[in-house]
Amino acid sequence: MTKSSSPEARTETVRESLHKMLLEGPATAKDLSRAVGIPEHDVAFHLEYLERSLRRRGERLVLEPPRCLACEFAFDRRRRYTRPGHCPRCKSPRVSLPVFYVEGRAPAKSKPT
Ligand SMILES: [Zn+2]
Q1: 93 CA distance to ligand 1 centroid (A)?
Q2: How do residues 5-34 score in pLDDT, each as one tens digit?
Q3: pTM for the complete prediction?
Q4: I need a surface site. Which of 24, 63, 82, 102 has the fewest CB within 10 A?
Q5: Any idea what the CATH number is for the domain that residue 14 is in?
């Protein structure tokens, strides 16, 4: 935790920076924490709020769920922004990081999966 004389202003700046980064392209919580200068643990917290304000603007925060690298199990519909500890199916700790990005107002073509 770093000292800040104005936590509210800092919070605004953090979310603006996160928003900007996510508009540019997909990023993991680790990427975001490094770029914005907040602990990885706090990224999830800020993204939840960012998602709400984006919705009002007609934008969308997209979460690509993590996936098990060992058995391909996809953590579908997992609405948590943090990385799961291990795969529930094969117990492998080799799980990819969830990736985030922002879809703007223009309807974007969905990527083939
Ligand atoms: Zn697995």
Answers
A1: 8
A2: 566 778 789 999 999 999 999 999 999 999
A3: 0.70
A4: 24
A5: 1.10.10
